[in-house]
Amino acid sequence: MPKRNDDLREKAYDLIKRKGEVFSKKFENSDLVTLLHELDVYQAELEAQNEELRKKENELILANEKNQKLFDEAPFSYLYLDNSLAVREANFLAQDFFKFSKSKREIINFSSYIKDGGMKFFLDWIVSGNYRNNYLELDLMNFHKRSNRFRLYLKDYAEEKKGYLLALQDVQKEKDLSEDLNRKNLLLNEINQNQENLILVYDNKYNLIFVNDRFLEFYATKDISDFKIKYSSIDCTFIKNEGFFNVDTKTNLHWTEMMTNSEQKDNLVLLNEKKTDNVKAFIVSISKSKTDNIICTLSEVTNISLEKRKLEKRVFYDELTQIYNRAKFNDFLNTEFSFFKRQSLDLSIVMFDIDFFKDINDNYGHDIGDEVLKYLSEIVSTRLRESDIFARWGGEEFIILLKACTKEDACTFAQNLRSNIQEAVFVNDIKITCSFGVTAMLLDDSIKTFLKRVDELLYKSKNNGRNCVSC
């Protein structure tokens, strides 16, 4: 029995020695009971360690499964390549595009997917080490030989650089959209450059950012910078003329804002073409793009504008005296009447006619009578303000609308005008006089009562012996 115990003690001690030399010396001379107890403790420790190892192994398996799932279901195509660039593994997207299958167990080199001419770029990218910092764009072909543009990202294997992890981002749609946008931009630019209209574009801060070739040609400039140096802005080149848009220097608004807010129906401007030195008329169209840019298109309407002005001359001007006719005067009066009702500003009217004009026609003939009417119109026109409206009311009768003028000032003006006419010498040394009626607009007036009152005052002057002013 002692022999058997000695054998058991020896075996127990051998097992404990595995725990370590230093630890085993502690129990070198221990009895069997002590060794068996320590052996139980050691066995329990081994079981605990094994359980921890099994737990870590399970966690590693789950982590690998998770990583594999992330790899397989990633939104990019992924390929594992060995150092010879053979495809060792592919995720689902890569399998779908390249029809790569691990079950076939065939070795496919990545070079077989690269479109002709791209292999050199790919190898240079790897050999130079540029893949560590930059991506590469290549056209890759799938099993149907359909080519797509991909953006390639390459990373070394973490362990001992046994190969590469290749990420492939399909950018074909992005490429197609870019090419389509470029085509449209080229087409738009070609349309802009080949039309006769002058086109200029401002950004939302009114900086000039684009002009077409026709615009540069019109101003004899090389580019936008050259135009800005020579002219600063297009509105500085607008020619002042009645009936055309002019910049109001009293406001801080940009000229496009002024034109947009203008009450004029036609946004017409006069410009001098530098190449020909000809004055041309343009109608301006202003619109805002979706990008908040301001697009201005100037379409030439020189011939149309001239015809329009000739027509207006015939319709609104008296053919003999070249002053406004009755129809145009009424048009002005309607506008000023509305303004008066809103603002209650002074508005006066002067009506006069030539005394005994029939005698001139009878004694000298109608041709001489016409000359008298023309010269009288010239005398009156030279004594008017720019804001005054002068028209031939009919026959030898004339009318003047005086804006921002009181009745007293209008009466003084009429008296001075009466004296000027009386002192003037007309054709064939003819001397004439005129009778005047003067009144101012009242708050309860209508246009009809306003005109009726001045007409009555004119006839009052006639009845009072003529060559006088009735107010």
CATH architecture of the largest domain: 2-Layer Sandwich
Instruction: Give the rounded overall mean pLDDT.
Output: 82
* Strand numbers in spatial order across the main sheet: 3-2-1-6-5-4
Q: Could you describe the largest sheet, including whether it forms a barrel?
A: 6 strands, antiparallel
Assess the beta-strand content as a share of residues: 15-25%
| CATH hierarchy class name of the largest domain | Alpha Beta
Count of strand segments:
16
> Radius of gyration over alpha carbons?
51 Å
Overall shape:
elongated
Q: How many separate helices?
A: 15
Output the structural class.
alpha+beta
Report what the structure shows:
By secondary structure, the protein is α+β, with helices and mostly antiparallel strands. The chain has four domains: 2-69; 74-175, Beta-Lactamase (2-Layer Sandwich), CATH 3.30.450.20; 195-309, 2-Layer Sandwich (Beta-Lactamase), CATH 3.30.450.20; 317-470, Alpha-Beta Plaits (2-Layer Sandwich). It contains 15 helices and 16 strands. Helix 15 links the parallel strand 15 and strand 16. The mean pLDDT is 82.
Question: Gist?
Answer:
The protein has helices at residues 2-17, 21-26, 32-72, 92-98, 119-127, 172-193, 213-218, 224-231, 255-261, 302-316, 326-343, 357-364, 366-381, 407-423, 447-463; strands spanning 77-82, 86-90, 108-109, 136-141, 147-156, 163-170, 198-202, 208-211, 268-273, 278-288, 294-300, 347-354, 389-394, 397-403, 434-440, 469-470. The chain has 471 residues and is an alpha+beta fold.
Secondary-structure map:
Layout: H1 2-17, H2 21-26, H3 32-72, E1 77-82, E2 86-90, H4 92-98, E3 108-109, H5 119-127, E4 136-141, E5 147-156, E6 163-170, H6 172-193, E7 198-202, E8 208-211, H7 213-218, H8 224-231, H9 255-261, E9 268-273, E10 278-288, E11 294-300, H10 302-316, H11 326-343, E12 347-354, H12 357-364, H13 366-381, E13 389-394, E14 397-403, H14 407-423, E15 434-440, H15 447-463, E16 469-470
Parallel strand pairs: 15-16
Antiparallel strand pairs: 1-2, 1-6, 2-3, 4-5, 5-6, 7-8, 7-11, 9-10, 10-11, 12-14, 12-15, 13-14
Helix pairs in contact: 1-3, 12-13
